Each structure stands twice: as structure tokens, then as C-alpha cells.
Known about the structure:
Elements: E1 7-8, E2 31-33, E3 47-52, H1 67-75, E4 87-93, H2 99-115, E5 119-124, H3 129-140, E6 144-149, H4 168-173, E7 179-187, H5 194-202, E8 206-209, H6 210-215, H7 220-225, E9 229-233, H8 255-267, E10 273-277, H9 288-305, E11 319-324, E12 333-338, E13 344-351, E14 358-365, H10 367-374, H11 380-389
Parallel strand pairs: 2-4, 3-4, 3-5, 5-10, 6-7, 6-9, 7-8, 9-10
Antiparallel strand pairs: 1-4, 11-12, 12-13, 13-14
Helix pairs in contact: 1-9, 2-3, 8-9
Amino acid sequence: MELSLYFEPVTAESLRLTDTDELKDRIFNSVVLFNPETTVDIQEAEIAIVGVPESRNAYRNPTCELGPDEIRRQFYQLHCWRKSVRILDLGNLIIGKTVEDTYSALAEILAYLIENNVVPVILGGSNDLAFANYRAYELLEHVANIVAIDSKFDLGDENTPIRSDAYVNKMVLQQPNFLLNYANVGYQSYMNSPESAAMMESLYFETYRVGLMRGNLDEVEPIVRNADMVSLDISAVRRPDAPGCPNNSSNGFYGEEICQISKFVGLSDKLTSFGIYEYDPTLDFNNQTSQLIAHILWYFVEGYIFRQNDNKFKDKGEYRQFNISVSGAPSELVFYNSKKTGRWWVLVPIHRKDSDLTQHYYLPCSYRDYQMACDDIISNRWWRTYHKINN
């Protein structure tokens, strides 16, 4: 792929980062800025930053297209990590004549990066770009699990044109469909209709209220560990911590909580793309929101650096196995606990109608799920996954 045809490169001058003495030990000097005049081997990169200044389908946020460079400016002034990581900044995508053109170009680029084992980090732009992110997996014919960190479900319906608050239904209706599971983390009940909540339930999608997650943040880890793709609408963060977004509220995740979640996202061995959307610099106060997003990125990369690759299950000797009989379960629940990281998985049986053989899906879970099984209780996540993959 000829990347130079798709991107407007960023420079130190365009980011207003020209004080070389101040930046000598900062992230800016460890990142490769893509330049069409130089040859860059994409396979040498581990993470690629992709700015997408697109907001034509934004809901009440028309100037979020200005976000990518302000995020970069704050991010690149932070100190580096203790371990090195190869980050390539591709610049800002040249948006298409239509929004659909932008979606198509972005999907092709993301598919190219993912296929080359490079994790793209998308800096939006509006939240509907998550739809283009999903289409990258369609191009790869890869069944995807998606996690959205968002205060709203953003469902929409088949008659609603795609918009930043109405795009999930488009994923569901896409044919052929490559969406295995969708989970919303951090929704706020008073910002979503009962009908949309019922629709999420009928689709066997996972929904987690912000209050529930804040009370036990570690429970977010197995949810994002199961994701191929995570999208973060900055409206999931409370307005006092992120004023540069018109659609958030007084409630939501605190800044330190969203940073911890971002580290969980980076730690996920399965995750292959991450997007952050809906930041509007014109609404920001003293760069508060752009600095928070920079910290979110910093923690994501730190998580990526410390990935443990314990999700392959090639050597069962690296795991402790626990078989538990639970009332009402179709068979024993089989839990695996990694000796290396302490993380947990539980098997979900897959019954094929055309075969007597039973396959298994390794569902990331928590120690709490194991404790519940010991108390003769099956977690809602297990039941929801079981019904979804056996329907």
C-alpha cells in the first residue's frame, strides 16, 4: 500500500514542538514521523498513530476534527517508558470527498496495518469512525469482538443515517457479518432509553454501567482482554475531568480510572486496534482534556509494552485447571488460571448442529467468576456468551 497517497504528514513545526533541548528525552524523539520522501518499513513498527480529522457525521460536535494534532502535541511532550517501543506516526488521513470515502480509505489502511501486525491507534474525529474500524475486520474476514467505552449505546436503527451516536446498528446489519460480540463499558442509564437497553439485551450484547465498573475496576480487564477492537468516546469521562467534549455529563469515569482501563486495553494480547474519539479542542480548558487523552495513550502504550502473550493455551502446563460442577450448567465449568500472570479464562462449549463434536471458546473472566462458580452461580457473561455462540 502506498501510504503517502492517504496521509498529510505531521512535523515538529505543525505540532509547535521546536524546542529540541526540552524534548530530548521525550516521546517526540522516539517516534518516527512518516514522511513520503523517506522509505519506512511498516513491519518495523509495533504501533501506528493514525489521525482522522473527520466530523461530518458528528452529533453536536462539529469541530472534533481539530483534535488529533492537539492530542499529539500533549502526548509527545511526555517522558518515554522504561522499555522501548517502535511507534510510527503516519500523520492525518486526507479525508474523502464524502464521509463514505473516508470510511473506505480508513478501513483499508487499518486492515493493512493489522495484517502486518501493527496496532493502529486512531485519533478522531467523531465516534462513527469506529464503524470504519470495524469494516477493517470485514476486509480481513476476521470475526471481531468489539468493546466500546461510552456513556451511550449509540445503537440507532436501520432507518437512521449513520452518525456518531447511531452506528452500532449498522455493524449488526452489515452482510456478511463479522461481529461476534459487542460490549459497552461505562454506560449511564439516564442517557439511554429503556428500548435501547432492551435491544442490547436481545442481541446478547454486554452492557456495564459506569457505577458498577467504578466500584470494581478490575472487572473491566477480562472484558477488554476479549476485544479485538476498543473504541473510547471521551464522553465516557466526567465533564470536570474532560471539558473538551460537548456530550459528556457531570458523571462518568474519573481521569485516573480511564487511564487504568487504557492500560488494561494495551495489556490485551488479543487487541489489534484502539480508537479515541469526540475530543474538541475549542471547548477545552487549559489543555485539560488533551492532556488527559495524552495520559490515556501513555498508559495504553505501557500496557502494550508489558503484554504477556498468555492467551495461546499451547502448553497447558502453564495453567492451573479447575473443573467445577454448577447447577443448571450443560456441563462442568472448566477454568484456567495462568501461572505467569494470574489471569483467568473459562471454557464455553460450542455445539455444532452438523456435528456431535463439542468445541470450546476460551472466555476471559475474573477470579470473581471462579468464586461465583464455587458458590454454585454461573456469571451472566458466561450465559450470554453461551447463548450467543450456540444460537
